[in-house]
Amino acid sequence: MATVRDFKIEPLDNARPHEDVEAVVRLIDCGREKLIQIDTYGRPGREIPGKCSQTIRLDKAAFEKLIQLGKSHF
Q: pTM here?
């Protein structure tokens, strides 16, 4: 698991579509700070269906930056 506190923006030259997967958002309160956690669960046909594939946590600054990046991109 990783906590993201900032983003580095880089282009992706050969982007291609990915398959849709299930994701769960968790609102975390660690006492000293609040975080937003996103867990993804991979494709249904994987070896262990339902197993968490990736977990990422965003602190407040990273979440706000992500919102701004999304607004300017879309």
A: 0.82
Tell me the β-bridge partners of 45: none
Sequential DSSP letters for 7-23: ------TT--------E
**Which residues make beta-bridge pairs with 73?**
none
The Cα 8–Cα 2 span in angstroms is 15
Q: 61 near 4, Cβ under 8 Å?
A: no
Specify the pairing of strand 2-4 against strand 54-58: parallel
List beta partners, residue 28. Answer: 35
Q: What is the Cβ-side half-sphere exposure of residue 36, based on CA atoms within 13 angstroms?
A: 12
pLDDT tens for each residue of 16-67:
998 888 999 999 999 999 999 999 998 878 888 888 899 999 999 999 999 9
Beta-bridge partners for 56: 2, 38
